[in-house]
Design a protein that fits this description.
elongated; 7 helices; mainly alpha
C-alpha cells in the first residue's frame, strides 16, 4: 500500500510538471483547463486539486503568472509594441494585458518599460537607468 501511494504521488508530480510545461507553451492561451486535463488523461477537478496540492495555485493562476512573466521579459528585452507583447504573452487583448499586468506589478506596462535598465555598449558595459535625455525627442 505504501509503495502504491509513493508511485501514485510520483505520477501526480510528473503530471503537474507536464501540465506546467504545457501551460508555459501556451496550452491555456486558447483552451481551458478542461482541454489541458484531457491532454493529461485526467479530469479538470483532479488537475485543479493536484495543482493546489503541489503548487498551491490553480492552473489558471499558473497560466496568468506565466503570461505576466513572459510579458515582463519582452518589455525588458525588446522594443516590441505593447499590442505585440500582449498577444505574444498569451493575452487575448491589450486591455486584458494592461489590467492583469497592473494588478501584478502595481504599475502599468508602459511605466515598467520607461523605467527599464538599458545596456550601454563600450568597454565597460555600464548599466544605468534610462533618463529623460535618452528618450527620442
Amino acid at each position: 500500500r505504501h509503495q502504491l501511494a509513493l508511485r501514485h504521488g510520483k505520477l501526480d508530480g510528473q503530471r503537474v510538471e507536464r501540465a506546467v510545461r504545457l501551460i508555459r507553451n501556451g496550452a491555456l492561451d486558447d483552451a481551458g483547463v478542461e482541454a489541458l486535463a484531457e491532454r493529461l488523461g485526467i479530469g479538470p477537478r483532479h488537475l485543479s486539486r493536484l495543482f493546489k496540492t503541489h503548487l498551491g495555485a490553480s492552473p489558471a493562476q499558473v497560466a496568468r503568472t506565466t503570461r505576466v512573466q513572459r510579458a515582463k521579459h519582452l518589455l525588458d528585452e525588446t522594443d516590441l509594441p505593447m499590442t505585440d507583447i500582449a498577444l505574444r504573452s498569451g493575452f487575448g487583448s491589450l486591455r486584458r494585458f494592461n489590467t492583469v499586468f497592473a494588478e501584478v506589478y502595481k504599475r502599468p506596462p508602459t511605466a515598467i518599460r520607461r523605467g527599464r535598465v538599458v545596456r550601454q555598449t563600450g568597454p565597460f558595459h555600464v548599466d544605468r537607468l534610462r533618463s529623460s535625455r535618452d528618450r527620442p525627442q
